Amino acid sequence: MTGARWTKWVIAVPMAALALATIYPLLFTANVAMKTRREYILDRFSLFDSLHWENLTKAWTSVGMSRYFLNSVVVVACSVALLLLLGSMAGFAIGRLRFRGSATFFVGILAALFIPFQVIMVPLARIMADTGLIDTYPGLVLAYVAQFLPFTIFLFTSYYSTVPAEIIDAARIDGNGVYGVYWRIMLPMGAPALLSVGVLNALFCWNDVLISLLMMPSAEHRTLMVGVTALRGQYSDDIPTFASGVLIAAIPVLVVYLFLQRQIADGVTAGSTKG
Asked: What's in the keyword line of the UniProt record (predicted)?
């Protein structure tokens, strides 16, 4: 083999192994979800004999997952909308306006990215309790915004920094103020970043368990991922039903990723190149 072909094999084999390791848990979960309880006990790694869709129905209705699904949709939609609004405004201000202290503020945003949620978990819960926001939808939305806003600002700042200054100068010559430049020029130009960052934040909020479990202690206000953990407790001896709940929670994420994978990749690399 030539050196180029050896290089391709050296890269392809580890990537294929990584892809298989990523896909296998999902395939295993789907296989278990289609089994009966008896089939799983006899051999958990064998293929299902027939499709048992009743497991999905049982998981959906037994612990009120339809309610949890609606809770997740409402919270994620509100959180993403607020994150995009605040993040795009802050990113535009830091990336293009260059006000006094903007560099220091941006460094502070970068520092916030390295602070895990566990560090601020107790102070956040105390603040939310003191303001009466525990076990409320606005409280969970604000918690998500507080957690994911630094990442959102970082991506928008990186994106808006690549916009040529001549465009902003031309908009100001046409009589636009700061808000006019943002609403009429920068926001429409930032549509690719809005889509990419919106998808990423939606996935973050949808997959969250810790923040939701902390902010929503009552069963009525649980999100879908927390509801799946409750399903595990209720059906600890019925793994196919639990696997069905996991599959239900994963399907929206899979659909979003399959249709918007390019936007997700663009969001991760936003602002990494100039021009």
From this structure: Cell membrane, Membrane, Transmembrane, Transmembrane helix, Transport
